[in-house]
Each structure stands twice: as structure tokens, then as C-alpha cells.
């Protein structure tokens, strides 16, 4: 069984209280919840928060929510806290980003589809890079893979370096991928990684997943056809609304 957990803390550094902002008549967290609830792969769905305002709001639209500790440094830690409060023998958890109000439920199903064997420790998604601008955008995290579609490394820099080729042409000579930040964790692995100390690679790149790789865990990667439209700042609201202007709100 798979549990979908939406971490939603109130005190975002760049956009405090963003889970409760109004987006065309519904809060962001309600939109995320309603979209995720359409997934056919999840046996349960719950919001994991640290704030009573979010907790009560989710319950007001008949969503499931649990209160988690306020000190958690990441959504991964909040997922483990929430999972321990759920009834049910869930083998996997999918961490659904609480700041993507228009996430397509099929994207969740795509990620869940690679968990069927039970031997996947961790999984995430990626999307092909097809332009020079996207490739060299340090806000986009790139992934290097092995032949089993497992991550070797994540970086904000462009890797691998292509010797003897103009940088403007690199994307034409190698299939680069960028990370799409939704994670699946096997239950036992989720418990283990929440106890790991921060590693030097994570400190260098500020990427949590590098802690897991540095400690020898395997992250399966699957290609998705769905873009991520995150809301990190107040200015992002209008940008995302324009991007999804052709979709029903």
C-alpha cells in the first residue's frame, strides 16, 4: 500500500503561510489535496503540518490532516512523523509537494508505477533538458544516471562536462535530465534516512538527496512528461496562473 503525504509547514522563509493563500477561490493546500486525491495509486492521503490553522483548514474541506513537530528540517522528516500516526501497513510513502496547486494526479501515478517490485528504496522523477538556457540554469537541478536509471549524482551545475564541444551545443550531444522534486520512500528506508547526519555533499549543493547518495542509498529515477509549477514567492502565483491558464481551475 502507498500513502500520499503532503508536508505543509506554515513558516516558509520566502512566503509565510503560503499553504493558505487564495488561488481563484480555493487555498493552495486545498488545490494540492484535491488534485492528489484523484490519483489511483494512493490508498490514503494526508496533510502533515506544524500549524493548527492549516490543520483546521484542511479538516474544514473534509481532508485528512495530522499535526507534526515544528522542528523538522525537511519534508522528508515530516513525512516520517506523519506516517507513524497513520493506521495501515503502508509499504511506501509518496511525498507530494504542498506548493504545486495544479499537480496532475497522473504524475503521482507515474511515480507509484515503478514501486511495484518492492525492491526500490527511493524514487524520484526527472524531465529531459532540451535547451542551453535550461541546462545552464542553476535553479534547475541536473541528474547523472547509471545504466539502471539510478541517480549517481544531483547538481546545480552542468554535469557531465563534454570535452571538445561548444557549451551552447552540449544539450545536443548528451541526454541531460533535470530533477522534478517528488519523492517516494520505502517505509524502512524513510525511517533510516531521517536519522542520517548531514553530509558534505548536501552542505555544498544544499540538496537533501545527496545525503542519501553519500550514505549509499539507491534512488530510482523515472522520466515524467509533467512539468512542475511551484509557488515559492508571492510573485510566483501570477506566473503559475498564466502557465496553467488553459486548464480548469
> What coarse outline follows from CA principal-axis ratios?
globular
CATH superfamily annotation: Spore Coat Polysaccharide Biosynthesis Protein SpsA, Chain A
**What is the CATH class?**
Alpha Beta
CATH topology name, in short, is: Spore Coat Polysaccharide Biosynthesis Protein SpsA, Chain A
Overall domain count = 1
Portion of residues in beta strands equals 15-25%
Order of helices and strands: EEEHEHEHEHEHEEHEHHHEH
How many strand units?
Answer: 11
Low-pLDDT residue intervals, each spanning 5 or more residues: none
The number of helical elements comes to: 10
Ends distance: 30 Å
Radius of gyration: 18 Å
Mean pLDDT: 92
The helicity comes to: 25-40%
Structural class: alpha/beta
Q: What's the story with the biggest beta sheet? A: 9 strands, mixed
CATH architecture: Alpha-Beta Complex
Walkthrough of the structure:
This protein is α/β, with parallel strands linked by helices and 249 residues long. It is built from ten helices and eleven strands. It has one domain: Spore Coat Polysaccharide Biosynthesis Protein SpsA, Chain A (Alpha-Beta Complex). Helices cover 29% and strands 22% of the residues. The radius of gyration is 18 Å and the shape is globular. The two termini are 30 Å apart. 35% of the residues are buried. The model has no long low-confidence stretch (mean pLDDT 92).
Amino acid at each position: 500500500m502507498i500513502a500520499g503525504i503532503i508536508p505543509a509547514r506554515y513558516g516558509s522563509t520566502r512566503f509565510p503561510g503560503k499553504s493558505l493563500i487564495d488561488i481563484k477561490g480555493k487555498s493552495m493546500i486545498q488545490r494540492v489535496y484535491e488534485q492528489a486525491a484523484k490519483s489511483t495509486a494512493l490508498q490514503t492521503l494526508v496533510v502533515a503540518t506544524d500549524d493548527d490553522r492549516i490543520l483546521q483548514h484542511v479538516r474544514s474541506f473534509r481532508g485528512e490532516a495530522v499535526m507534526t513537530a515544528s522542528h523538522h528540517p525537511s519534508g522528508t522528516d515530516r513525512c516520517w512523523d506523519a506516517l507513524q500516526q497513520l493506521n495501515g501497513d503502508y509499504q511506501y510513502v509518496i511525498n507530494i509537494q504542498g506548493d504545486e496547486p495544479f499537480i496532475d494526479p497522473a504524475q503521482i501515478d507515474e511515480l507509484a508505477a515503478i514501486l511495484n517490485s518492492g525492491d526500490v528504496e527511493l524514487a524520484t522523477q526527472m524531465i529531459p533538458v532540451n535547451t542551453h538556457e535550461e541546462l545552464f540554469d542553476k535553479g534547475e537541478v541536473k541528474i547523472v544516471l547509471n545504466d539502471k536509471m539510478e541517480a549517481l549524482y544531483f547538481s546545480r551545475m552542468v554535469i557531465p562536462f563534454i570535452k571538445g564541444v561548444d557549451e551552447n551545443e552540449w544539450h545536443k550531444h548528451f541526454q541531460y535530465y533535470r530533477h522534478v522534486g517528488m519523492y517516494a520512500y520505502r517505509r524502512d528506508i524513510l525511517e533510516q534516512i531521517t536519522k542520517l547526519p548531514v553530509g558534505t555533499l548536501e552542505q555544498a549543493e544544499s540538496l537533501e538527496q545527496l545525503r542519501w547518495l553519500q550514505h549509499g542509498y539507491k534512488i530510482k529515477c523515472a522520466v515524467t512528461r509533467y512539468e512542475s509549477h511551484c509557488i515559492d514567492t508571492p510573485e510566483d502565483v501570477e506566473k503559475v496562473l498564466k502557465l496553467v491558464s488553459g486548464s480548469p481551475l
